[in-house]
Design a protein that fits this description.
This protein is of the alpha/beta class. It folds into 3 domains: 5-69, Archaeosine Trna-guanine Transglycosylase, Chain: A, domain 4; 78-181, RNA methyltransferase domain (HRMD) like (Transcription Regulator spoIIAA, 2-Layer Sandwich); 205-397, Rossmann fold, CATH 3.40.50. It is built from 11 helices and 21 strands. The strands form 5 sheets. A 7-stranded mixed beta sheet has the order 15-14-13-16-19-21-20, sandwiched between helices. Strand 14 (246-251), helix 8 (255-266) and strand 15 form a beta-alpha-beta unit. Helix 2 (78-91) crosses helix 5, helix 6 (209-219) runs parallel beside helix 7 and helix 9 runs parallel beside helix 10 (315-328). The mean pLDDT is 96. Bound molecules: S-adenosyl-L-homocysteine. Residues 205, 208, 229-232, 234-235, 250-253, 256, 280-282, 301, 303, 306, 308, 313 line the site of S-adenosyl-L-homocysteine (SAH).
Amino acid sequence: MTETMKISASKQAVETFQKGYPLIHEDMVNKREKLSEEGTVFDLMTPQGQFIAKAYYGLQNKGIGWILTNKKEEAIDQQFFVGKLSAALQRRKAFFEDESTTAFRIFNGEGDGIGGLTIDYFNGYYMLQWYSAGIYAFRSLIIRALEAVTAYEGLYEKRRFQQQGQYIEGDDFVKGKEAPAPLHVKENGMTFAVYLNDGAMVGIFLDQREARKRLRDEYSAGKTVLNTFSYTGAFSVAAHHGGAAKTVDVDVANRSKSRVQENFELNGVISEDQEIRIMDVFAYFDYAKKKNITYDVIVLDPPSFARTKKRTFSAAKDYTSLLVDAISIIKDGGTIIASTNFGGFGMKAFQKQIDKACTKAEVKQNVTERVRLPDDHPYTASYKEGDYLKVVFIEITK
Ligand code: SAH
């Protein structure tokens, strides 16, 4: 057997790794040029030559690899992956037993012990997502491990490791039976259409499950709801299940219209009562202001970064002004559901943006709840960026 490569951590990084930080940033190791082939397993050492952990080399925009184990003798073989996957499945037992929810995450990267890999379950089918060529090098081992611990109808994958972590176009079917397109999945009794083999996104963001449920159960009855950045209308579907009087969905992408309609039909929502608008959210705010259209509830769930023909939006820089726009068309006493999946700042910094917006717009805020990642999206305490989702329900008094 060839000797495992040894890479030494930079002096400043040793303690961070010893405390369990799982991601290796470029500047946390010395002589990283020794690493050439993604997927290489190496021992991370102190500058004095003591073993810290075993890691793999894989390039993501986040870093150059992930820690796999701090046990020196543990081999990174099929048994290793079987162990991680079966522990992850065990953790989701309650999800498998709950018949009202058939779509959830069964493996959440470093939160389940292997950075760079997520696996989602969609009503009998599994979707593996690879975030570097490094983790993809373990593909057949991981698929065999998955097969050793569970049965499935079919397997799909998304390779998200083109430059800047972009999705690589292609046939995403791996093996087993092909899923119907659309495949119908359930979430807390609601039905959603997903397409496992139709580009980068399947049609539902599983991490928002709890926020959708809160919207449905506590904020929708009799209410008018504006769902911005609506994508397939999942928040509006939840609002209708909760008895909303009317929803308006706004998204700049053309595909949005038929996908929202499809989800409405699946849930018995009469779509004539609803508006689905294909337009820029910022243009919609201008339009609503001009026409004095106001809402009881506004959902703001923008991507962290977005570029349209007219402007770029960055959650870090522009969330405050997005909130100011929303405040201008919220009814007195209405609720803004402000969400961001940007891992670059935490809840405190997000709340600061909310405070700023309320001061600027001269309104009072009352945060009625904060929703974070659901239980199928575990993260490790030593890696805060993994706890990325922040959803704040803000009651606005004018
Ligand atoms: N809130 C959605 C997910 C949003 S995904 C859900 O819960 O399912 C982000 C969406 O924002 C994409 O559909 C994209 O087309 C849309 N988008 C990005 N920039 C936009 C803009 N300026 N105006 C309207 N939609 C935008």
